[in-house]
Amino acid sequence: MSVIWAKVWFDLWHMKSRTLLVVLSIAAGVFAIGAMFGMSDQLLSTMDAAHQAVVPAHVKISLDTFIDRDTARFVKNVPGVENAQPFVQMPVRYKVRAEDPWKNGIVYILDNYDNQIYELIQLKEGRWPQRNDIGIERLAAQHLGKEIGNNLIFEINDSERVLPISGKIRHPFVPPPAFLDLLFFFMDSEGAARLNVPQSKFNALLIRVTPYSEERAKEATTLIKERFAKLGIGVVSTQYQDPDKHWGRMFMEAFTVVLQVLAVVSLLMSVILVYNTLSALITQQTNQIGILKALGGGSRTIAKIYLSAVLIYGALALLIAVPSGAFLAFGIAQSFLDLFNIDYKEFRVSDTAILFQIVAALGVPLLAALIPVAQGAAITVRQAIASYGLGGDFGSSRLDRWIEQIGARFLPSHYATALGNLFRRKGRLVLTLFVLVMAGAMFLMVQSLNSSIDATMEKIYAQRRYDITIEFGGNPRIDRAVEIAQSVEGVEKAEVRFTHSANLIVGGKRVKEAGLGGTLQGAPTGSDFFEPFMLAGRWLQPGDDRAIVITKDMAKKGGVDVGDTVTLDLGELGKDDWQIVGLYDPVFAGGFNPDIIYAPLDAVFDSTNRYFRGNVMLVRTRQHDENFVSPINRQIKDLFETRGIKVVLSQTEPENKRTNDFQFGIITSFMLVLAVLIAIVGGIALMGALSISVVERTKEIGVLRAVGARTRTILGMFVMEGVLQGVISWLIAVPFSFLIAQPMASVLGKVMFSADLTFRFNYAAVVVWLVIVLVISTIASVLPARNATRISVRDSLAYA
Q1: Three-state SS for 733?
Q2: Residue 121: per-residue pLDDT
Q3: Cis, bond preceding 129 (omega within 30 deg of 0)
Q4: What phi, psi does 529 have (nearest 5°)?
Q5: For 243-263, b where at least 16 C-beta lie within 10 A, e where not — what string?
Q6: Radius of gyration of the chain measured on its C-alpha atoms
Q7: Is 296 buried (19+), middle (13-18) or exposed (0-12) by CB count in 10 A?
Q8: How far is CA 477 from CA 510, 603, 616, 705, in A?
Q9: How far apart are CA 284 and CA 278, in angstroms?
Q10: Cβ neighbours, 10 Å, residue 697
Q11: pLDDT at 47 over 80
């Protein structure tokens, strides 16, 4: 072994605590890079591959009535259409036990499950459903804890019917039950007859166009809607999708980018310790550098010694970070893929993530070390001999003297010494504080993002001055439906609205649709049940006639604004001109909700000639907690069913809030984990800085020992130094985070949720972070402080 490598290994081995701190610090950042980039790579690529494998339809059209096979067949003859697959999708009510309340589900019906064209449904266990049994979506089976052969109770023809589960089936386009408590089931055509579905009748279509383009899909859909309108068939919703990109990508892509950014921040924080360590080591070994140069060693030799040590730090960190990062990346990806109903059982490693980890572990620390290594390699023999190596110029500046005066006036002598020592190495102090400040800023920013989401949701629910939403299977008379609902004890008020799918036409061209397309909602003017976030113009007022309020995105796509007149195409209900009086922001609408166009209910009646009937009811209860609202919801549904009014779907606002809290909680939890990781890196950096400080002040510690300083005094000095750094970082992090939290929350809101968040700074998190940083700084100080107390007078005097 050469002399150079002997010195490298000697320094690494005989300063094991320093080596361990640097390796762990680099490993933390490299681990975060591997976990987040690996998770993103595996998650998004697997989602897209699974999506493409099921031959996704380009367009899904839901109808308000049943059509026969011949009517469905004409769709294939529309120019640009490759093929169309008709099917039935119906609401159904089920329960697990006889004493349970009814729950809403969806039953999916195909003529022949062995002859599918698009959105291929896969049998995972058991067999396809037959006349006297039912298939269950496998996520639903997991949610209910049901196995093949178990029974479920369904409401069929106003009576309870027990059906055994014949098989577990994977449907590629179902929402996770954890997000939306709406389970999917499957029947064959014979079983569908029990639900009063006529033989060979359908109410939905899956369509593909050729060659695919988004514009071609929309053009073909327009022709199909026009033909349906001529036949008096209404289109309930239209959903477009990219055949190459999974439908869940829109939710995950922005989220993974934010996590990757936090991972990179974690890495940058970790390499600061490399810089600090190399700076201190070179300063400490200035005399050794002088000896090497006196013996003929050049600057390249000196640089090689210290850069080799950095490479070894990085290599050791890589050994820790690669396997742990790969396992976490796989575990996170698998968890999210399970939510999206995608099989991912075989352990995989992302080659891209490993490449990034190699660069992060070997390249980034080398770059961080270049400056201190270059400075050390440039030292001349004369400078090295003239230097004491450990520095000690504190007290020469005005700031130093001011700090000395504060310490002498307000602190005991040993704590005053700790305060002075804190500012001895100002460059190292700044870098260490930078890591801790960034950790605090990230923590407070994530907590404020969470608070901003809560504030936005509170604002949304405050504007929704109702507790229950009920969708009817038909269009009952408004007065009768309201009378039935308001007869239930606990109901304060109920109102009915009329909804219908709608297309916005500007200059003879249809405006590009998003999500499930556009839906016209006729609302009673003067109603206090709901008013959206208005961005321009005004909300509907009594006396309005052909007035509408549309989303800002719909206005942008159509190139229209408040005051413009547009045409609404309601399919079989005809077309009419309306004036835009306001634009609103549909916060957290997501990609699977329609763009709602609000209009006065009376004006909608006049335009459609559908008077005094509606299909959506909003109910306000006297109390608003879930324990009060849920029983009333069940009573209203049961009462409607007994009066012959079919309820398709009912939701309560407390249930919606719980679901939203769960969804957003997943996102903010991952961000918080990375913020905590950055905080741990900050603690390691502080521990490293204090350890370096102990080494640099070995002789001073010996002098203190010689004049009678007790172990507790020396321990207190170093712990106080660490705690002071933590407190100073907290004092800086709080105002800094306050400055950046609002713009960052705004950016993250738009990137991750496509929404402008109502900003709320989390003041409670300020106190929490103070506690955390005090704990971190105390723990980080204990080991260096204990090492300082173990230095004897003899060892300190022998230290060179």
Answers
A1: helix
A2: 92
A3: no
A4: -75, -35
A5: eebbbbbebbbbbbebbbebb
A6: 34
A7: exposed
A8: 32, 17, 11, 93
A9: 10
A10: 22
A11: yes
Distance, in Å, from the CA atom of 565 to the CA atom of 546, rounded to the nearest integer, reads: 10
Taking each continuous run of H as one helix and of E as one strand, the counts in the chain are 24, 21
Q: How far from 134 is each of 36, 89, 114, 128, 164, CA to CA, in Å?
A: 41, 14, 16, 8, 6
Half-sphere exposure of 560 (CA within 13 A, CB side): 28
Give the residue carrying structure tokens 């308000």. 64
Residues 6+ apart with CB under 8 A from 586: 532, 551, 553, 593, 595, 596
Contact yes or no for 255/667 (Cβ under 8 A): yes
pLDDT (0 to 100) of residue 186: 94
HSE (side-chain half, CA atoms, 13 Å) at 644: 3
CB 539, CB 600: distance < 8 Å: no
Residue pair 31/320 in contact (Cβ under 8 Å)? The answer is yes
Residue 385 has what pLDDT?
Answer: 65
pLDDT at 601 over 90: yes
- Asked if 105 and 91 count as a contact pair (C-beta separation under 8 A), the reply is yes
Calpha distance 426→319 (Å, rounded): 33
Which residue's structure tokens are 């109603």?
Answer: 527
Largest CA distance in the chain: 103
* Pairing status of strand 183-187 against strand 103-109: parallel
CB atoms within 10 A of CB 227: 15
The first and second tokens of residue 590, run together, are: 């997501």
Query: Tokens 């159509």 appear where?
Result: 558
For residue range 650-666, what is the model confidence (pLDDT) as tens digits?
Answer: 888 888 888 777 777 77
Mean pLDDT in residue range 323-342: 90
The dihedral sign for the CA sequence 599, 602, 605, 607: negative
Alpha-carbon distance values, 387 to 227, 279, 292, 305, 701 (Å): 91, 15, 15, 20, 20
- Segment 583-595 shows an average pLDDT of 72
Taking residues 266-275, report their average pLDDT.
Answer: 78
Closest CA to 241 of 233, 229, 249: 249
Bridge partners of residue 535, in order along the sequence: none
pLDDT number for residue 470: 92
The answer to whether the beta carbons of residues 282 and 428 sit under 8 Å apart is no
Alpha-carbon span 563 to 797, nearest angstrom: 87
Q: What pLDDT score was predicted for residue 416?
A: 62
